[in-house]
Amino acid sequence: MSGSHPFEKETLVEPLTQDLIPLAGTLVGGILTFSGAYLSTALLGKRQRDTESKNLAVCFSGEIAAIVSIIRKRRYLEHIEGLLRMAKDGKRPPAIKIAVRNPYCTVFRDNAGKIGMLPAPLPSSIVRFYLQVYALLEDFENFREGALDQEPLPTVTRLYEEMAALLSDTIRLGETIGKEVERIYPSPSRIH
Asked: Which top-level group of life is the source organism from (predicted)?
């Protein structure tokens, strides 16, 4: 026991502990680095998905607002209601001559597969809006091609009633979607 303290014991634990401290530091550093990288990637991914969801909602809202605006400015509902009044008065209304030549609904057509990214209730409302628009476009085309020409007046009246109700509901739905998008994703000008 030359030069050692009487109560000190030399063990294998001390050299082993000294070797493990750098290894433990390396492991902890690696875990922290991996965790930081994972969390930052996850947070960036969430932020990117949120941004994409907002952009998609705003695009849908813009296209829907444009469709509603066109319906209002061209007074399609008033035109259908006028034809309906004529039919209810017992007069055969003239055929609708509205032709749709341009491919409307391009945002929906190009992004329908991404609609699930949007928060509820937007996906179901947006799909319903566009299906109603497609039904209306089909009705306009059928009426323009003379589908009502041989129908009895009560049938014509019923079809115009249904079309007016569908057109009115589609306008309301489009306006509701715009308000819901604005509520979920307020525009910067409205925040202040």
From this structure: Bacteria
User: Within a 10 A sphere around the Cβ of 71, how many other Cβ atoms?
Assistant: 18
Euclidean distance between CA atoms 92 and 157, whole angstroms: 9
Length of the chain: 192
| In contact, 122 and 64? CB cutoff 8 Å | no
pTM for this entry = 0.74
Query: CB-side exposure of 164: number of CA atoms within 13 Å?
Result: 16
Closest CA to 84 of 161, 169, 143, 140: 161
* pLDDT tens per residue, range 32-59: 676 666 656 655 567 888 889 999 999 9
Give the DSSP letter string of 92-141: PPPPP-----S---HHHHHHGGGGGGSPTTHHHHHHHHHHHHHHHHHHHH
Q: What is the rounded distance in angstroms from the CA atom of residue 134 to the CA atom of residue 128? A: 10
Domain ranges of the chain: 55-191
Q: Phi and psi for 97 in degrees, rounded to 5?
A: -115, 35
pLDDT tens for each residue of 94-140: 888 877 777 779 999 999 999 999 999 999 999 999 999 999 999 99
Amino acid making up residue 151: E
